[in-house]
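Researcher: Sit down with what I've pasted below and flag anything odd:
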Amino acid sequence: MTMHVVLFYANIAQYVVMTLSLLRRVHHTTAIDRYDRALARVADVNKFVVLSSVDLSYIDMAVNLYTTSIKRFNITNYLLVCSDESASRLARAHGIATFVMDRHDTNGNISSV
């Protein structure tokens, strides 16, 4: 599936590209499949997705952005890429669609992204 991704913050563009590259190199295909399904779930009819990323230390700011801008303007093609399950759980409690990065490679090592 071809997906158009709009990055909410320009400074995460490199992060997303590195993340996708990392997924393709060290993770099972299932991680890529999960990411594709998450994108397809929120994509609009033109297959556009607005992405943002967050870790637990910035979840309050991400929730504030969502409630004051994303939700307020009825933007439904938004996906928050979370670095951990804790951040995802807090975001989902506010109705935010999330995808959790699987930071473990096939050998059980934890990546630094």
Summary: The two ends are 25 Å apart (CA to CA). The longest helix spans residues 13-26.
